[in-house]
């Protein structure tokens, strides 16, 4: 008989991956983000890091708990193991014997040199789902090149669609990195579902290049379907989308899409019926996007954003005020949805800032996803090595030879 969901059990309802054990060998964003997404769904994630500094994101700014690291590593524990050493690789394999998922973002070939290739680990644990994230795929002319977010944006064609001009600076979030993490989590979830039927783990591969192309399929297909390179503003023109600056310098985003009622609503909101004669059909508005944008720019510059918010809402125009990152916690809709979560402080991580964004997926209305803050480097090494069958004396030996790090758990050894 199916268990009945109650107010008391709703908090557990979102932990759909409860009992799944993930080993996260990743650094920076792609693999750590994928592992964090799995952790938000209830998976138990152990982040395995090098004892000499760990994930480079730890010290991207600040010492050990940089905002970049905190953003992609909540709900994880940390074991510091030097997997480059033979004895460290053996310790890792002990942990992998009963793991469900291995995640890594290494250059192709590195996993084989470390003895972590799919064939080796599949023989060790046939149920293991092995996920490798690369910049350009497992082979090919670019396979061995280094890759970070901007590289994926540039090669995929997406950079050409979001950046123009001679200013060499890059703005915005790490789109290529983040989407690679999302696709990796999706691939792992599918492999877990298949394994429930077959009992056998799957080899999962995701490249930054392919993931970034996958989020801009309309532009990728445009040359083949239309015979020309898409114009920089083609999406905005087709979608009738605008970012408009008001008299107080604040901006509002408007997206009319194709329904005629939204165009008519905008004309009523700005009291410009003459534009209906100038741009009578949607095609006229698409082809006259630049001219229409200038008309709207002048109109919106005449009044404050508060004025336009009232007018646009009154006439059912699809819009939103442009929020800054600092505005988000104060936005009424975001507050209503309880998007931000405040994780309780715990253990060795008590000094870590814990405000975070809940997962985007809700189960039975529940989006709560923060169970505990990001870990200190090696905070849980001893706990997991003892569980894997190593004795305290053997762990002490591994620590003294530099194969493992023990965080702050064994001050007697670190004195």
Distinctive features:
415 residues, 13% strand, Rossmann fold, alpha/beta, 7-stranded mixed sheet
How would you summarize the topology of this molecule?
Layout: H1 10-13, E1 21-24, H2 30-40, E2 44-49, H3 67-71, E3 76-81, H4 86-96, E4 101-104, H5 110-113, H6 118-124, E5 129-134, H7 149-156, H8 158-162, H9 175-198, E6 203-207, H10 208-214, H11 217-226, H12 234-239, E7 241-245, E8 251-255, H13 260-270, H14 274-278, H15 282-287, H16 289-300, H17 305-314, E9 319-321, H18 332-337, E10 340-342, E11 355-357, H19 381-387, H20 392-400, E12 404-405, H21 411-414
Structure description:
With 415 residues, the chain is an alpha/beta fold. Helix 2 crosses helix 9 (175-198), helix 9 (175-198) packs across helix 10 and helix 13 crosses helix 17. Strand 7 and strand 8 (251-255) form a beta hairpin. The longest helix is centred in the middle third of the chain and has 24 residues, at 175-198. It contains 21 helices and 12 strands. It folds into 2 domains: 10-216 and 339-414, Rossmann fold; 251-321, no CATH class. The strands form 3 sheets. Strands 6-5-4-1-2-3-12 form a 7-stranded mixed β-sheet, sandwiched between helices. Residues 1-11 and 344-353 have low confidence and may be disordered.
* Low-confidence residue ranges: 1-11, 344-353
Number of domains: 2
Proportion of beta-strand residues:
5-15%
**Count of β-strands:** 12
| Approximate shape | elongated
The neighbouring-strand order within the major sheet is 6-5-4-1-2-3-12
Rg computed from alpha carbons, rounded to a whole number of angstroms: 25 Å
Question: Architecture of the largest domain, CATH level 2?
Answer: 3-Layer(aba) Sandwich
Cα(first) to Cα(last) distance is 56 Å
If helices are DSSP runs of H or I spanning 4 or more residues, what is the number of helices?
21
Which structural class matches the secondary elements? alpha/beta
Average of per-residue pLDDT values: 91
